[in-house]
Write a sequence for this structure.
């Protein structure tokens, strides 16, 4: 996109009144639009963000108990993994790049760029955003020699050192097909997805039904705390976890909140 | 956007497998992405579409009773109006241009381009799409000499012949501020919005909680039927309508559907 287009959208920001009741979410949207102009986010990523916004609105834009439970378990899986990998897409790189890097340092875990719509320009743009936020090594750009079985085209390409040999993969919003394929490969998949009904949410081993901008800081805090716990205590958390129960709780919460909201009418 | 970029996104279509369970909604998304490349839809329109997708998913992607009730009333208001106007934004122009034109002919109603993010290129692109689908006259492009009180900047500009003097305005997803301002001006506002909780939905006189791609064909059918009814029968429908009750029904339906869906887990 050329400079004119770029500065034109930037000008939009001034249009949103200071007292607009949805100003914050409008500004997050502008951030994603800018990321699209910088080739970090693909247009389809904007639509996916919109879906997330809707579910976030329904849960009340707060981290609820079901998400906290999932975050605790995610933390336990990540710190006990042999080769944990954080899979990064365009939306995550735009919204939480510093948190991704920080999390990768304290676990420690590898970072891999993993895109549904992969092209050279985007790979490099996302890698650069992560490096600008302190990432020392970003997989998934020039090392995607391996493929996820049962998938095809650019979507199946992964790094041998990263996702291909990972035992635990943390991912943001993801295509259901790819989540399923990763689980079939025997990996533990932790998904951050506001839609508890998505195939990714239903297929993942741990589903954090929360906004990634709230979930990642909480996950960082939990990993820091849990690092001080004994291994067997951490293992016990993992064995007691039930993802289906967490998802049911999330849906029940959303259902009750909609019922409540209808009472104000 | 240049040609290379354009054809690159077009190529994406081949990537979506024929048997992908969400293929239809992915293809609608591609249509909107293409509309963005043609300057008809603004990136924020993609995010708005995503929010709609989520609510549509929750209601089961079908027109429900609460939407039918609202469509019936919308039809009654439109055919008895003195100066009904269909307000068209980028998403409507991309998804239902032929239906907008057809509806405007049978009511008859004027068509006005009405944009949150207005610029010359977009105005003309949307006007052209509507003309390509048979619209003989499109307001809101070179005739926006009037303003909606209490709004500012480009968002307030309207046509004197159209929205400014309209008694009934049909609109798709709309900014809550503008809907409120139109209602304060004494106009009857009919909104098509999948989110029953949006300020537009709560403020409008009639809220059709349905996907615009399903609602417009049904509205066309209803207008055709109702044109044959007696004026006093049509008036009775209007006086019996209760939008709050319709919105409550929509939320109750969504709430119950989420509760049901959680049972399959």
């Amino acid at each position: 996109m050329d400079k004119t287009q770029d500065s034109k959208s930037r000008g939009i920001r001034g249009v949103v009144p200071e007292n607009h009741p949805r100003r914050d979410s409008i500004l997050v949207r502008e951030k994603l639009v800018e990321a699209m102009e910088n080739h970090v986010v693909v247009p389809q990523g904007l639509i996916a963000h919109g879906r997330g916004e809707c579910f976030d609105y329904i849960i009340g834009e707060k981290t609820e108990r079901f998400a906290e439970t999932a975050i605790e378990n995610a933390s336990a899986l990540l710190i006990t993994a042999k080769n944990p990998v954080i899979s990064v897409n365009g939306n995550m790189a735009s919204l939480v790049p510093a948190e991704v890097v920080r999390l990768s340092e304290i676990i420690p875990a590898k970072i891999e760029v993993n895109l549904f719509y992969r092209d050279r320009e985007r790979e490099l743009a996302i890698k650069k955003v992560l490096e600008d936020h302190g990432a020392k090594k970003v997989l998934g750009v020039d090392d995607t020699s391996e493929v996820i079985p049962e998938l095809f085209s650019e979507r199946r390409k992964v790094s041998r050192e990263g996702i291909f040999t990972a035992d635990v993969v943390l991912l943001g919003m993801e295509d259901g097909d790819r989540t399923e394929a990763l689980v079939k490969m025997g990996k533990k998949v932790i998904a951050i997805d506001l839609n508890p009904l998505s195939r990714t949410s239903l297929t993942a081993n741990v589903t954090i039904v929360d906004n990634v901008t709230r979930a990642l800081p909480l996950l960082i805090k939990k990993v820091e705390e849990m690092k001080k716990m004994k291994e067997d205590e951490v293992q016990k958390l993992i064995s007691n976890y039930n993802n289906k129960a967490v998802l049911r709780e999330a849906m029940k919460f959303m259902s009750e909140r909609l019922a409540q909201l209808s009472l104000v009418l």
